[in-house]
């Protein structure tokens, strides 16, 4: 292994593991370590348990606990570490103030973190620090616990870890995450810079820095970092996704479409695929390419068939494409999924108004009235209803409707004459 020939070393160890077990009976620790290296954790645990039963030593239980951690048996590992501590205790029931003892508490803390028992983990790391005050990993892990527990003191632990070990990559990244969660993006970016100096090939560091730059609204700088992430990992789904969103923000639609297209060729979770289709559909809407937008939104409904807003978006696209019946069906489905959707009532009402028939105007009036009943402060519903009254020669009602609307919100009366501009509906941008 010192000659960097890992494959040959691994082959030798695997061959050694296949030798008759009787050859190892006098060396149970070596046997367990070899079996653990070969991922035969259960055999290693069995071997050490038998040895510990006849020769109960702290070192035996510590190794057993470490192998149980590798085997994801964290509860058993905690029991093993506790047995080791009990054996180490003096007659005065005091643990020796050594690094080995501190390490047992540190490993116990890691087990508790795996079990999501954060308070116990925090206490275990605190005990490790009390026994060995220059333990950077213990400070770092306690900082993680405190951050998950939303304790502001977590930043002190990260600072202490870095004071003891200035090249602690994870501490810089965690400190960046803390500052990022507080909206202090510039300070978070500075910590990512330090992490990248330590590990220049870390795609994770470039990715997080790019995400922070996006949050800081420096989109072009974010694109550079996300592109670097993709150079380091060609299949980093989130890097392509975030870069596409950045391109979308700076109106570089061609490159945004390219990244969304690449994403849809990768193996995506349903959630990510849904967001990609929604975002690309919104981009097509900005380009006034309603046919392609409609196709993306329809595909999104296959992944999330109960999302009423997507059906509203389909209805709007069909409206723009002058496909009246399809548009009405889409709004009907949106209202079936969400019977209190004000926007869906207004959208369907506008469709009926454009149809021009008397029956359509009456149906539109019902939709606008329903929207106002659900939200009396809905300005666009009042404007549309006022226009509807004018078209149906109910001028006095039209004026009354606009006066009421004006009392709710001080809006210029000229909005009344720009009815068509109030037929724009959007889904919330998924970032």
UniProtKB/TrEMBL annotation:
Keywords: Repeat, TPR repeat. InterPro entries: TPR-like_helical_dom_sf (IPR011990), TPR_rpt (IPR019734), Ycf3 (IPR050498). TPR repeats lie at residues 58-91, 102-135, 169-202, 274-307, 308-341. Gene3D superfamilies: Tetratricopeptide repeat domain. It comes from the Eukaryota. PANTHER family: TETRATRICOPEPTIDE REPEAT PROTEIN 6, UDP-N-ACETYLGLUCOSAMINE--PEPTIDE N-ACETYLGLUCOSAMINYLTRANSFERASE SPINDLY-RELATED. This is Tetratricopeptide repeat domain 6. It comes from Accipiter nisus.
């Amino acid at each position: 292994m010192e000659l960097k020939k890992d494959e040959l070393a691994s082959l030798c160890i695997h061959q050694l593991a296949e030798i008759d077990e009787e050859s190892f009976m006098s060396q149970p620790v070596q046997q367990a370590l070899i079996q653990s290296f070969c991922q035969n954790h259960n055999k290693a645990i069995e071997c050490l348990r038998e040895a510990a039963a006849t020769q109960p030593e702290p070192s035996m239980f510590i190794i057993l606990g470490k192998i149980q951690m590798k085997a994801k048996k964290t509860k058993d590992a905690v029991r093993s570490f506790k047995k080791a501590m009990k054996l180490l205790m003096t007659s005065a029931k005091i643990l020796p103030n050594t690094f080995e003892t501190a390490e047992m508490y540190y490993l116990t803390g890691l087990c508790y973190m795996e079990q999501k028992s954060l308070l116990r983990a925090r206490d275990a790391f605190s005990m490790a620090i009390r026994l060995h005050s220059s333990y950077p990993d213990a400070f770092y892990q306690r900082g993680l616990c405190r951050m998950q527990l939303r304790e502001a003191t977590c930043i002190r632990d990260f600072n202490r870890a870095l004071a003891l070990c200035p090249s602690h990559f994870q501490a810089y990244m965690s400190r960046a995450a803390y500052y990022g969660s507080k909206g202090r993006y510039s300070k978070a970016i500075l910590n990512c810079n330090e992490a990248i100096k330590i590990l220049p090939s870390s795609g994770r560091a470039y990715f997080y820095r790019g995400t922070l730059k996006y949050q800081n609204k420096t989109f072009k700088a974010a694109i550079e970092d996300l592109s670097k992430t993709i150079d380091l990992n060609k299949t980093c789904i989130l890097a392509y996704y975030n870069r596409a969103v950045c391109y979308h923000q700076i109106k570089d639609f061609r490159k945004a479409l390219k990244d969304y297209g690449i994403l849809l060729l990768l193996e995506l979770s349903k959630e990510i695929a849904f967001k990609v289709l929604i975002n690309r559909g919104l981009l097509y809407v900005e380009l006034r390419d309603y046919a392609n937008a409609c196709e993306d939104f329809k595909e999104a409904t296959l992944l999330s068939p109960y999302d009423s807003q997507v059906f509203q978006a389909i209805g709007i696209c069909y409206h723009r494409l002058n496909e009246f019946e399809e548009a009405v069906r889409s709004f009907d489905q949106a209202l079936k999924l969400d019977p209190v959707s004000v926007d869906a009532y207004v959208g369907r009402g506008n469709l009926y108004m454009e149809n021009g028939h008397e029956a359509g105007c009456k149906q539109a009036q019902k939709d606008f009235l329903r929207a106002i009943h659900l939200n009396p402060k809905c300005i666009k519903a009042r404007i549309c209803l006022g226009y509807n009254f004018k078209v149906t020669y109910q001028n006095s009602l039209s004026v009354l409707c606009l006066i009421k609307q004006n009392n709710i919100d001080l809006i210029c009366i000229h909005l009344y004459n720009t009815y068509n501009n109030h037929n724009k509906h959007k889904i919330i941008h998924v970032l």
